[in-house]
Amino acid sequence: MKEKIEKIVDGVTIKYHANGITIWSKGKITDGKPQGYWEWYRIDGTIKRSGHFENGESVGEWTTYDNRGKPYKVTKK
Question: Which residues partner with 57 through β-bridges?
């Protein structure tokens, strides 16, 4: 499996799907751990999931989106 490309833009870590074009995830990393708001995307570019981290742990409300990018489920961590 091809390793995901990763770059940092304005303090935000952006990881790409194996195709190297479509964003897979984006958010901030502090001391090697996810911090703050993060988003994940499908290979077609639609948003898949979003939520917040504190010190690498998921917290608060997390939203899962349908294949058109519309929210369909919210869970609490």
Answer: 54
